[in-house]
Amino acid sequence: MKVVVLTGGVGGAKLVLGLQHALPPGDLTAVVNVGDDFTHLGLRVCPDLDTLLYTLAGKSNTEQGWGRAGEGWRFMEELRSLGAPDWFNLGDRDLAIHVLRTAALAQGEPLSAVMDRLRTAWAVPTRILPASDQHLATMLDTDEGRLAFQTYFVARRCEPQVERVVLEGVDAAQMAPGVGEAIAAADGVILAPSNPYLSVDPILAIPGMAETLRGAHVVAVTPVLPGRSFKGPTARMMTDFGHAVDSGTVARHYAEVANILVVDPDETVAGSPIRIAHAPVTMNSLDEKVALAEACLRLLQ
Amino acid sequence: MKVVVLTGGVGGAKLVLGLQHALPPGDLTAVVNVGDDFTHLGLRVCPDLDTLLYTLAGKSNTEQGWGRAGEGWRFMEELRSLGAPDWFNLGDRDLAIHVLRTAALAQGEPLSAVMDRLRTAWAVPTRILPASDQHLATMLDTDEGRLAFQTYFVARRCEPQVERVVLEGVDAAQMAPGVGEAIAAADGVILAPSNPYLSVDPILAIPGMAETLRGAHVVAVTPVLPGRSFKGPTARMMTDFGHAVDSGTVARHYAEVANILVVDPDETVAGSPIRIAHAPVTMNSLDEKVALAEACLRLLQ
Lengths: 301, 301
Description:
CofD (chains A, B); CofD-like_dom_sf (chains A, B); EC 2.7.8.28 (chains A, B); alpha/beta; three-stranded antiparallel beta sheet
């Protein structure tokens, strides 16, 4: 069963890891948001792609929730001692990916080819494709003016009020090689439980993507988690946009693209424009990740 | 007493550290070989400048003889796991300098300005100037063809027989800002005990340098160490060029530029074209480094 998952970073990567365990090797393709990518100290950093790569290679720091297992911070110590910008953490291991990617891009290798080389070197069975090889930049128009995503998220800790999301460069972008083909060949498409505005929309907005998805069987998974205060940029932005912080908002957001929205059994969604299915969406353990993945796959059959 | 020292990396840096201790802050300028600089994985690496910076900042690994104290190797572990080139060691701390420099050079900042910013951040009292802001490349014509310095030195461990040294790019190079002024204002110039062919000649060969040094009081220190087998590229190259491996060869090499050559009390130099002075040239301890520095300064007075 060939499956394509559209995903952002941390939250989405959990489901992608579950799907990787639930599907035979080679059957899964992850199409990953590149709107958060940015250049820092001359290095091209792709937070969502790298989170996918580390998670699927079993190299992520599961306790911390981001970055590498066994990471070191000597590089950052040096930056600080030299008075260089230290607002974005670059781990000693993480740097290897950034340095190799930056050098390869400078030589003219497309981002999709670089990422495929890296995931192959680490024997990751899932294809990891950037949504686009072109540079996009997710910008946020806020009450403090237009901010780049990393500035909003890391430097300003999601505190500014967001008025709208602007995806700079999207009109000139194309789907990366393989993305359209993978979707066309897939038995179904999954929208991972990532931030709809910041992680999934920047994939859906790439020219040709909406047409490619038309007719596909698409299951979305809500990023709204049950039974706990729902913090972070998704909740902040739902509030900023005047929406309720619940899966009804997610269902209405994905009405045009998804056939089904998976929400937690504890959540009731009234008046959804699309079918609601229930499965536990908390993915703390690997078993929970695989169980949610298998629930999604059943909905695609 | 204003002093300029022309130097390569490890061997020369020991004397420069001694000079830094022997002179009042601000009186010493190190003009450093850039012929070994190269671009590796997209990063601009300047081995001699960095050895000077680390040594003078008290951050060098004195046991190992190269690189940083407290260095880590997570970055290199990652490179290896990804199948990337690992023949040149880039430490986790060392990377900070390379990344910051590469980013600054890409923004158009001259190498001399970058290095001045770094040494100032670490409160190094000695001015560290690259001999030139332009790219030079020390190439070796050998029995295996033309090799870049790092290939000869690191990858091929000085095994190929050297026929001659070629400094690519030197004709278009200029002395870095401040070099000519520092030499003109100096009470004396010291040639550090670095490899004459690979470290000092690439400084002397920069257009205008010979004229700038004419009339200056120049004391050279031999790189030939007494009472031990003298290995490494200097001895290898003296042999390859058909010279004896002794300070007489050094004296003849520097006959046009230096007034005095300092050699160890254990060594007798017959038929030198320039004056020979004696001082212990082994610099294991800081005391020995300062003692040799003071001997050089006395010769300049």
